[in-house]
Amino acid sequence: MRRITILNPKGGSGKTTLATNLAAYYASRGLATVLMDFDPQGSSSRWLKSRPLTLAPIHGVTAYRNQPGMTRSFQLRLPPGTARVVVDTPAAIEPQRFDEYTREADAIVVPVLPSQIDIHACARCIEHLLTTARIKRREERIAVVANRVRPNTLVFRSLMRFLETLDIPIMATFRESQNYIRSFELGVGLHEMQAERSLPDVEQWAPLVAWLESRGRTQEAGAEEAVV
User: Are 111 and 14 in contact, with CB atoms under 8 Å apart?
Assistant: First the structure.
């Protein structure tokens, strides 16, 4: 099983977009997928409710809501055979709570928008992941995704210059596209839309998906070596 956490305390950075599309991607590949929604806004859960029954199922966990008469551990339990867990985190998380969401994560994806406010928020987020949450760079568990970008603009070039200073891999740059809005309305992922409509956006996901899968293989191989 591989667990992927989407995290950035800055609201509106595109966490839910990443989480829902990743969950749909894995489900469409035949992997038993769980989408955990810790965001009180419940956007991922609403997307999941609108998902057509004809598509590959995704098990949803409304983690932001405490269920009466149910222990927290039972509420957050995973179905047997779960292969991928995608965690959509809330906005405004205190740095002291980062560890709650990252402790068991095989990969942590930080989305950032091309604006000065978001660039500053991303810098603080990465800083707290490395210090407060004590994630070591050599673990290579953190990656950044530039979201809703418009290439060849001054703010985009400023964003890319900033990201290069972090010494954290930039795994993808997603263009601003109506396909994301449309896919959310339909309860589907980009990879499940008609190819001629979504191909330019789908191609931008390839580096991120490849990195996520390589992270899982690297950690599994390390675990096997430790056992031996």
Answer: yes
First vs last C-alpha separation in the chain: 20
| Helix extents (H) in the chain | 15-28, 43-49, 72-75, 98-102, 116-130, 154-164, 178-186, 195-227
pLDDT, position 57: 97
Residue 133: which of 97, 99, 91, 90 has the closest Cα?
99
Residue type, 195: A
pLDDT tens digits for range 87-140: 999 999 999 999 999 999 999 999 998 888 888 899 899 999 999 999 998 899
Specify the amino acid at residue 182.
R
CA distance 228 to 167: 33
Whichever domain contains 92, its CATH number is 3.40.50.300
- Cα–Cα distance between 14 and 148 in angstroms, integer? 8
Structure tokens at 178: 């109506």
Number of separate domains in the chain: 1
For Cα atoms 191, 193, 196, give the angle at the middle one, nearest 5 degrees: 100
Nearest CA-CA partner of 22 in 213, 210, 209, 220: 209
Measured on CA atoms in the order 107, 145, 130, 86, is the torsion positive or negative?
A: negative
Range of the domain at 11: 2-227
pTM beyond 0.85: the answer is: yes
Cβ contacts of 38 within 8 Å, gap of 6 or more: 63, 64, 87, 88, 89, 90, 101
- Residue 153, Cβ neighbours under 10 Å: how many? 11
Residues of the chain falling short of pLDDT 70: 216-228
